[in-house]
Design a protein that fits this description.
CATH class of the largest domain: Alpha Beta
CATH topology of the largest domain: Rossmann fold
Oligomer: single chain
CATH architecture of the largest domain: 3-Layer(aba) Sandwich
């Protein structure tokens, strides 16, 4: 019996206990958890960041049984200190509306309250950052082990309010105070891993953590999230055969169509491409080549920013969008250039690199993004575009 396809499953524990398919990334996780460096990883939405952190959480909780048969089980077999239960502070900024005043403080309060209830700590009269400081100390003292801090989608409270400058500035200041303690209390911390779509370099989480290792453009970890074609052939071959049979295709032709539709993301100029994992799993589940990732979010703000910055939209199809590495990694939320967010949110990816100029060329990763994005772009730049007058994107392309 085939394992279930993990559509929208972000819990590693649920995935392993309920017979869902898991594409094994634990050899890479092993490398990361055995390096004391605090990490940051930027990837587009629906790219498996939450599942990655959930897997790390299970590892640091010492849940060895969940890793049975995976690469990390063998890698840790001679390590006598493996599978200890470390205190974990997992901050998840998904699933909330940050448009309201003090919404970020409310999110931090509710997450800290959960930790305080667990450790039996009374926080009356303390600020948010003082509560976090005391929790790190208390958890360390109770367990005898240093703490693990995992932060999922840290930038959602910033991206949600990017069109509200005062609230955006306010949320930056909240983060600056709250997460600055990660540096000063590092003696109590074993491991830090932070994920997001964008890296706002003026936020203290980065400026104070000057030893933070940003692996977003590191070749060794280019496939840490997403799925490679080799992984498709290794883990998904039975599902490929079902899809090919349903669509009346040979398997090789089926792979070619999947590649054109969902592959093409490159997070280092020398790395292989990776498939959008959400779209790939949905295609195999639905047994069809649909536009699944693009349907989960419309880039309204990006379209608006393109218009306001008078961006030459012809660049999207003539391979003339260029960026330096610092442009791809850092974003302030203040500059008019839409290219950093287009890259970080997954609408553009690396197509080549000019080492002499130290310049990346960016392009659409695949057909799903190409047609989806241009279809959203057309009404803004060609208001009369409709499916019936020959000005729709499918006719023009």
């Amino acid at each position: 019996m085939l394992k279930k396809l993990p559509i929208g499953i972000q819990s590693f524990e649920k995935l392993r206990e309920d017979n869902f398919l898991y594409v094994d990334k634990t050899a890479l996780i092993y490398e990361l958890v055995h390096n004391n460096t605090p990490y940051f990883l930027s990837r587009p939405r629906r790219f498996g960041k939450s599942l990655l952190l959930s897997t790390m959480k299970a590892y640091w909780e010492g849940k060895k049984e969940l890793f049975s048969g995976l690469a990390i089980e063998k890698l840790e077999e001679r390590n006598i200190t493996a599978w200890q239960t470390h205190p974990i502070f997992y901050f998840d900024f998904n699933g909330m509306n940050y448009q309201q005043e003090h919404a970020l403080e409310d999110a931090l309060h509710s997450q800290l309250k959960r930790f305080e209830d667990f450790y039996g700590f009374d926080s009356s009269g303390l600020t948010l950052n003082e509560r976090f400081q005391n929790l790190l100390i208390r958890a360390h003292n109770q367990s005898g082990l240093r703490c693990v801090v995992l932060i999922d989608e840290y930038d959602k409270p910033l991206l949600d309010v990017i069109e509200t400058p005062e609230l955006h500035k306010h949320n930056k200041e909240v983060f600056k105070v709250f997460f600055s303690i990660l540096k000063s209390f590092y003696e109590y911390i074993q491991f830090i891993f932070i994920t997001g779509v964008s890296k706002f370099h003026k936020v203290s989480i980065f400026s104070d953590l000057n030893q933070l290792n940003d692996i977003s453009l590191t070749e060794d970890y280019a496939a840490l999230c997403g799925i490679t074609e080799d992984e498709i052939k290794r883990y998904l071959n039975p599902y490929l055969e079902i899809l090919a049979d349903k669509r009346g295709l040979r398997k090789e032709e089926c792979i070619r169509l999947l590649r054109a539709q969902y592959d093409g993301y490159r997070f280092h100029p020398d790395s292989i491409g990776v498939y959008n994992p959400f779209s790939l799993m949905k295609a195999l589940y639905e047994k069809n080549f649909g536009s699944y990732w693009f349907e989960t979010g419309t880039p309204t703000f990006l379209i608006k920013q393109l218009k306001e910055s008078h961006f030459d939209v012809r660049k999207f199809t003539d391979s003339s969008i260029y960026a330096a590495e610092e442009t791809l990694k850092d974003y302030t939320g203040e500059e008019p250039d839409p290219v950093p967010l287009l890259y970080q949110t997954g609408y553009l990816t690396i197509s080549s690199y000019d080492s002499r100029r130290q310049r990346y060329t960016l392009s659409f990763p695949n057909e799903e993004v190409t047609y989806g994005f241009l279809n959203c772009l057309m009404p803004a730049f060609v208001p009369k575009a409709t499916a019936g007058n020959g000005l729709d994107i499918y006719t023009l392309c």
